[in-house]
Amino acid sequence: MIDGKKVLFSGMQATGTLTLGNYLGALKNWVALSNEYECFYSVVDLHSITVRQDAGELRRRARNLLTLYIAAGLDPEKNCLYYQSHVPAHAELAWILNCFTYMGELNRMTQFKDKASKHANNINAGLYTYPVLMAADILLYQADAVPVGKDQLQHLEITRDIAQRFNSVYGDVFTVPEPFIGKTGAKIMSLQEPEKKMSKSDDNPNASIFLMDDPDTIIRKFKKAVTDMEASVRYDAVKQPGICNLMDIYGSCTGKSTAEIEREFDGKGYGEFKLAVGEAVVSVLKPVQERFDELIRDKSYIDTMIRKNAEKAGYYANKTLRKAQKKVGFPERVRE
To answer: Which of 28, 197, 221, 274 is catalytic?
Structure first.
């Protein structure tokens, strides 16, 4: 705990462009959590290079992502918003934890299998040990809670296993984190293939709504969204997965329940419903986009915030790192 508050950690990769799913499923919920927890929100750029990146583009996207954190409502005075690469303790602790992680555990990671199939010409060791670095990210800050989607629970489980294994040898060094799963907007699906999660890397440009899409583009994408032949706005995950996804999006943007949405569009066509969903999304994203445009031009403010937050993250991360280093027997560093 820090100042009487439990600690929460999460992060996003600086690859691609954030989608509506990233916003409704994670970023929007982070803002509310900052009142309850001491929050560390990282731009996890170390994770990003498991796939080859253009250096200049990675730097640009990392800065844009960090700026979007603030634009979405995360106060950098209340939350620690920082680049993972600016805190060397992440990589240092990851090496220690590698030595407490079993090959069998890493072999079971489904996300490695998925990424390896997509990047067959670059199946590198970093891609394989990715979950260990993720464990270091979380354990460095003694996180009590980690917001995760259901598809990320496996990574949190291996983090818990590593922490418990280390603690069983050396005592209570790490807090064993618990998952925090948001109740709304937890999983936004593709507009074109509603059985798949909305993705930053989807090859179909009409499948995802991106945070910086202009209003006309947003409306056009929703008009093209896949529905069905039922011709009614009803929440039926088996017969109407596309409509269910649009209802989830509309509910997340308006705060309306499933029953309220069904009543609102009773007897109305899909065209009217899709337009309403698109307009609700435009309304939600407009203030985020305007704030981002304002912030990205204020280089001095963003640079100052980056420096201050990196120092804060480094302070807490190094406290944990020194404890772990001492436990495994590394010589103490001589400090001035």
So the answer is: 197
Is 197 a catalytic site residue?
Answer: yes
The percentage of the chain sitting over the pLDDT mark of 90, rounded to a whole number, equals 73
pTM of the prediction? Answer: 0.90
Q: What is the rounded CA–CA span in Å between residue 264 and residue 79?
A: 38
Rounded to an integer, the average pLDDT of 214-226 is 96
Q: What is the DSSP letter of 147?
A: E
Cβ neighbours of 113 (radius 10 Å): 10
* φ and ψ at residue 125, rounded to 5 degrees: -65, -35
DSSP letter at 155 equals: H
For residue 166, give the nearest of 332, 326, 331 by alpha carbon: 326
Mean pLDDT across the chain: 92
Choose, from 6, 187, 200, 312, the residue flagged as catalytic.
200
**What's the mean pLDDT in 54-69?**
94
Amino acid 119: pLDDT? 65
Q: Is 115 labeled as catalytic in the residue annotation?
A: yes
Give the CA distances from residue 56 to residues 61, 62, 86, in Å, rounded to whole numbers and listed in that order: 9, 10, 17
Pairwise CA distance, residues 42 & 30, whole Å: 12
The predicted pLDDT at position 184 comes to 46
200 flagged as catalytic: yes
**d(C-alpha 298, C-alpha 47), whole Å:** 27
- Which position among 6, 28, 78, 115 bears the catalytic label? 115
- Res 316 pLDDT > 50: yes
Read off the tokens for 281.
Answer: 């999304």
All structural domains of the chain? 7-180+299-328 (3.40.50.620), 184-297 (1.10.240.10)
Asked if the model's pLDDT at residue 185 lies above 60, the reply is no
